[in-house]
Write a structure and sequence with these properties.
The complex is a heterodimer. By secondary structure, chain A is mostly helical. Chain A has 19 helices and two strands. Chain B is mainly alpha-helical. In chain B, helix 2 packs antiparallel against helix 3 (88-115). The chains are: A mainly alpha, B mainly alpha.
Amino acid sequence: MPTPDVTPIIPELILAVAACLVLVVEPFLKLDKTAVVAVALTGLLAYGAAAFALLGQDMAGFNDMIVINDYAIFFKVLFAAAGVMTVLMSPRYLEAHDRHLGEYYALLLFAILGMSVLAAARDLMAFYVGLELMAVSSYLLAGFFRYRLRSNEAALKYFLTGCFASAITLYGISMVYGFTGATNYAEVGTALAGGENTLGVAFATALVFAGMGFKVSVAPFHMWTPDVYEGAPTPIAGFFSVGPKAAGFAAILMMFLAVFEASVDTWTVIFIAFSIFTMLVGNLFALVQRNLKRMLAYSSIAHVGYLLAGMGAIGQSGDLLAGEAILLYLAAYTFMNLGAFGVLAYLKTQQPVTFDYTLDDMAGLARRSPWAAILMSLFMFSLTGIPGTAGFIGKFYLFNAVVRADLVWLAAIAVIFSAVSAYYYLRVMVYMFFRESEEEFVGGEAISGPLAASLALAAAGVLFIGLVPARLVDASATAFQNFLGL
Amino acid sequence: MVNPTVDLLIQFGLMAFIGAAVAFALIAMSHMMSPTSKNPNKAISYECGVLPCAEARVPYNVHFYLVAVLFVLFDLEAVFLYPWAVAFRTLGVVGLVEMFIFIGILLVGYFYAWKKGVLDWE
């Protein structure tokens, strides 16, 4: 057997070693977990740097199961950024809950490893292994506060729906294998292009869509999302709302463009229909939430709806712009949503007892901690899509692509729903700036250094993408074109 | 000549129907054909012939569970080692190195469990 070339998986190898190292170091530490945090951070930075260094490479390895190209690297760098932000906002939050354990970081790194494989997979088997690695680590992270009822509930709900989704995806994959006798994306795509078994392929497409729909919380497969986000540790809820979603969309894009290319007419209709329903459910349910974590959960469902509209646009027109817009939107969304969860994590560390993530708890925040209020406003503006922030650039490119695919009516629906979303995003600001807190504020702890760094990183990302988007637009364009060229 | 889509639909329906029918038929047949004798002893949980003396659902040491999980881990390792040993000559040095990496990752987990006191029964 020839020696395999490990170049395509160098970033993943670094991440895997770092995760194992965390597990080796952890048992030797008593209460101070700084060493573990340092190992995890170094690992993530090295992972991102290694991916960045491989930029421009285009090669496949391990029997064409895994590729390294600009598309995979785009996502790897994005995951590294999300991971760094999550790690930085975690220590103080976990200490506030007396659950600062090293396993947390190991699980986080393993989840990112799974996401990374998911974005780089070019084979149904590698895809599934990545999906499960990501999912199993996520279930454990959701239930990390195992002495809390809510956290257990979150883990159990996530686990059961997640297993169900995995099984459905696997059933779809098995049907694809049955029709084609291949698991490699390119081979399957060629075999399916023959046009036989159209009904069976449509069935397999629908199954894979439903399974992946669970993972990225497409309505009506979204029921677990608010409960899981509410019960999971806040940094982890933030991570769930960006990481697995970005990885899921990386895989969906690749899967539906490379594997199910033949049934493009079927899945375009599926994507457009589910897009409208997801936008509707996400935005309408977000309107009535008074718990901010639940509100952000429904808002994340709404954002998935916009992204699905982009998928519909790709299917409709084959327009490159839509794919680039999805990548761009995912990058913008990562920074703004993780930032919003970061502010919530900060407020929880400040008042571990009284703060309960409700709108009323946000009252008078501008007076108590003006910086937190300003940052939260920035992230809320960005999620709404106000110009000057990342959210605007993301929405602008995405809706533009939808219009270019002759789906003007779909773009109109998306814009109307974005306008609706302004109500629940800006309401948070009304509470922060114009309502006085009823309870007397008991002075809390100052912000910890890492948490401040994490928020600064998120804010910098939002402003950078919002004000000078050219770099990222180019990057996502190169990444997506490179992916199509394969 | 039937419309191909309709034909496929019929095939799909037949497959689903036969699959469900076989499952139901097997359960129903075993229900109908097996001899049944009502005997209170049959309702007792099977404990190797010894009469059960207490409720089985009692809290027991979590160590049993942890050791069981560790056992599954290394049991599965053996499952992977066996085909590797059979194909050892074809896989050569690369296979050897890959197997050592695999075992190394498992050992990290074992080391972690050990240091965390899973094997400590005091």
